[in-house]
Design brief:
The chain has 369 residues and is mainly beta. 10% of the residues lie in helices and 27% in strands. The chain has helices at 49-54, 108-111, 115-129, 266-272, 358-362, and strands at 2-4, 11-17, 35-40, 45-48, 61-62, 72-75, 82-84, 91-93, 96-98, 105-107, 134-135, 144-148, 169-173, 178-181, 191-192, 202-205, 209-210, 217-218, 228-231, 236-238, 259-261, 287-290, 295-298, 307-310, 317-320, 346-348, 355-357, 365-367. The strands form eight sheets. Strands 27-26-25-24-28 form a five-stranded antiparallel β-sheet.
């Protein structure tokens, strides 16, 4: 059985491959083929059955009214790298039409959209054109480009300032994976009074340094294109992400407030081998850290009581794993009424829906007996 791809000169035939004896890779998704496949033996072109049928009727080239001076060529080979559609401004991935002579790309929806769709999208572009199409933000070396986010692809991004998912209009540097909500871009302070270093303000700058919070080396010559908060007098530095950490837990076992290091720092935790200052074992999971003293403590070594009683709640509270109880993605502490990170451990009530930060419970705790 053969099928004809509109984008390939030869017919491609059906094959069934054995994973153990055959070593063929799909030209579209780059994954190894096992089972049903189509191939052009002359060209050594192999495709999964689903990948072949997904592009079967797509023409090799098209002419589009928004880029009529050049033909657009079908690009379906290789891994699905993210790209920005030049019509809808959305970040997409996978098969697209691209100009070989200009940096112009369209996703499949925009490439074959009706004239009415073009009008609607042009109106949206005119609305977007009233905004700055690029900005040189003081926290990032490269210019940030205006985008409109789409979650239709496999690539999801968060705002680097507030850590919440991108929605609507935002600015970003795609090569660095650095993105900011439009409304967050003017919230970032150039000078920061930080509790990790109360003696002097920290100023935003592009420097080579070691982050005092996570101990990661920050080098502008490598992968870091984002400014660092630092004190040149004391050689104290915080990378852009760690500058948002705050000490929250005041515990009788230590003079300074401790900062919760959660699952979002897992890669750094495994890479830099933080050692618990109490039991001397590695911190391979969540722990509390004093940045000023370079002190680390497992939750079990702080110690955080497994059961506590808070004066504003009549039931005992149980120390629990992270809880995601809200389908719309909003999570709040019932004591301070501020947002909580759903990846952090919490105290919760087994009899009602009361959930609270560990630090909110322990900072005003009545021991449960």
């Amino acid at each position: 059985m053969e099928i004809k791809l509109a984008s390939h000169e030869h017919s491609i035939g059906y094959h069934c491959l054995d994973d153990e004896t055959d070593d063929k890779w799909c030209e579209k998704c780059t994954e190894k083929i096992c089972g049903a496949a189509y191939a052009c033996v002359k060209c050594e072109l192999w495709l999964h059955e689903l990948c072949a049928k997904a592009i079967q009727y797509l023409p090799r080239e098209i002419t589009h009214p928004l880029h009529s001076h050049h033909h657009l060529m079908l690009d379906w080979s290789g891994p699905a790298a993210p790209f920005t559609c030049d019509l809808c401004l959305k970040i997409s991935s996978g098969t697209n039409y691209t100009c070989c002579r200009c940096p112009f790309e369209l996703d499949l929806v925009c490439a074959f959209a009706s004239s009415d769709d073009h009008v609607a999208r042009k109106k949206r572009q005119r609305s977007n054109s009233e905004r700055k199409q690029t900005m040189q933000h003081y926290c990032h070396i490269h210019p940030l480009v205006l985008y409109e986010y789409s979650n239709e692809g496999e690539h999801d991004y968060n705002c680097r300032w507030c850590d919440k998912p991108l929605t609507g209009i935002f600015y970003g540097c795609k090569s660095c994976g650095f993105f900011l909500h439009e409304f967050c871009s003017d919230k970032i302070p150039k000078t920061l009074n930080h509790p990790f270093h109360p003696s002097h303000p920290l100023r935003l700058d592009f420097v080579d340094a070691t982050c005092n919070a996570c101990t990661q080396w920050i080098s502008m010559s490598k992968d870091f294109s984002t400014a660092t908060y630092g004190c040149q007098i004391c050689n104290f530095n915080l990378d852009f992400g760690c500058a948002k950490l705050l000490p929250t837990l005041k515990h009788e076992s230590h003079n300074h407030c401790l900062t919760y290091v959660g699952p979002t720092f897992r890669d750094l935790i495994l890479k830099y081998h933080f050692q618990c200052s109490s039991c001397r074992e590695l911190c391979l999971d969540t722990f509390y850290r004093c940045v000023q003293c370079d002190l680390n403590l497992h939750l079990k070594c702080v110690p955080v009581p497994p059961l506590a009683k808070h004066r504003y709640h009549r039931h005992p509270l149980l120390l629990n794993q992270p809880i995601r109880e809200d389908e719309i993605g909003e999570y709040y502490c019932d004591i301070c009424e501020k947002e909580r990170d759903p990846t952090h451990e919490v105290y919760n009530c087994q009899k009602c829906t009361y959930i609270a930060h560990i630090e909110c419970v322990l900072n005003q705790v009545a021991p449960f007996l």
